[in-house]
Design a protein that fits this description.
With about 350 residues, this protein is mostly beta strands. The chain has one domain: membrane protein fhac: a member of the omp85/tpsb transporter family (Porin), CATH 2.40.160.50. The chain is about 0% helix and about 60% strand. The chain is globular.
Length: about 350
């Protein structure tokens, strides 16, 4: 969930290349930014809190260029659904961008919703379940040329204090994750980032591939494999108008805990649906968004997308395919970094959902 000043960690550095050596006062770029956190999603309702953003750029040993912006972010928040979150995340480039270090440490107390598995679940079958979790993700990615990075990623999550409603489907169907458990996996990430900016790209592309194995070898209570694909493309149309496309694929095989099943919806894709309205092993979806300025610090966007969760490829059909269309407003919080807050209203098969977030959806 994006909350405060996200996605600055890969800002491009073309503008930092200079002929003359930098002045001594310009040889380090660093700072701290405290900020309030305000957001809204259908799952959390309004959330409030505080964040502390630390950032820096490291100057090259060989020329006058800098790394892209490295970022560490601490967020503490509370929602009207009585959920709490303490979240430290980072995306750091070492000097000369030889390595990208990214990961997170998190503690969360959460109330989630479950309707069943598959596309034929009914809204009236909704049940609530509570759980606490602590998690850690640590990835070390090495630069391999062509603005590409490759490396291992370790993921650990401990689910505990799980509480179910009476007559819960999770319990009656013995769905993995219905009780406490440990989720540990090791995988690899490969990414290519050719965007001209990560907060508001107007040209270029971003590609990420990742795969993980979770199992007893690593001390996990759940055994499954996970594969992910994401591709974004950005077309500049002039005058700060952008056409952006996004395609996502998520595949799982094995005993996947309910908290890690693929979902259709949320603030990233298919914004006409709550994130956890539909669950299954796999998800595929694609969307297009047109972004344009209005006046002063205000902008707007129009978006449309299709996608679905599924167990087998044959499960994807026009009768169940989820569509989402919508529009939104943008307000430039940091015009110099093109960082926006957004208010998106998405419409899908079951009505309207509203998202108030920081940063673009993709």
């Amino acid at each position: 969930m994006l909350k405060s000043f996200p996605a600055l960690a890969q800002e491009q550095t073309v503008e930092n290349k200079t002929v003359d050596p930098p002045k001594p006062s310009m040889r380090s770029v660093k700072g701290l930014i405290p900020a309030p956190v305000i957001y809204y999603t259908p799952d959390t309702k309004f959330g409030i809190g505080a964040s502390l953003l630390g950032y820096f750029r490291l100057r090259s040993y060989t020329d006058t260029t800098y790394t892209r912006l490295s970022l560490a972010r601490l967020v503490v928040d509370y929602t009207l659904n009585k959920q709490t979150d303490q979240w430290l995340s980072w995306n750091i480039f070492t000097r000369e961008e030889r390595l990208m270090l990214r990961g997170e440490l998190r503690h969360r107390i959460y109330t989630d919703r479950f309707y069943g598995i598959g596309n034929d679940t009914r809204k009236e079958d909704r049940e609530l379940y509570d759980y606490d979790m602590i998690s850690a993700k640590i990835a070390v990615l090495k630069h391999v040329g062509f603005r590409s990075f490759l490396g291992p990623d370790l993921q650990f999550t401990e689910y505990y204090d799980v509480e179910l409603e009476e007559g819960s489907q999770l319990l009656s169907q013995q769905i993995p994750g219905y009780k406490k458990g440990r989720n540990v996996g090791l995988g690899a990430v490969f990414l290519i980032d050719h965007r001209n900016s990560t907060s508001y790209p107007s040209k270029g592309f971003y590609l990420e591939l990742s795969g993980y194995h979770f199992g007893k070898t690593f001390g996990s209570d759940f055994r499954y494999n996970n594969l992910n694909f994401e591709f974004n493309r950005y077309y500049g149309l002039g005058n700060d108008r952008v056409l952006a496309t996004n395609t996502m694929l998520r595949l799982n095989e094995g005993d996947v805990p309910v908290q890690r099943l693929a979902t259709a919806g949320g603030d990233k894709i298919l914004r006409g649906y709550a994130r956890n309205r539909f669950h299954d092993d796999h998800f595929v979806g694609s969307q297009v968004e047109y972004r344009f300025p209005l006046f002063w610090r205000l902008g707007a966007a129009a978006f449309a997308g299709v996608g679905d969760v599924f167990d087998k490829p044959k499960d994807v059909s026009f009768s169940t395919l989820k569509y989402s269309v919508g529009t939104g407003l943008r307000y430039a919080i940091r015009p110099d970094q093109k960082l926006n807050s957004r208010l998106d209203v998405g419409y899908g098969r079951e009505g309207i959902n509203i998202y108030l977030m920081i940063g673009e959806a993709f």
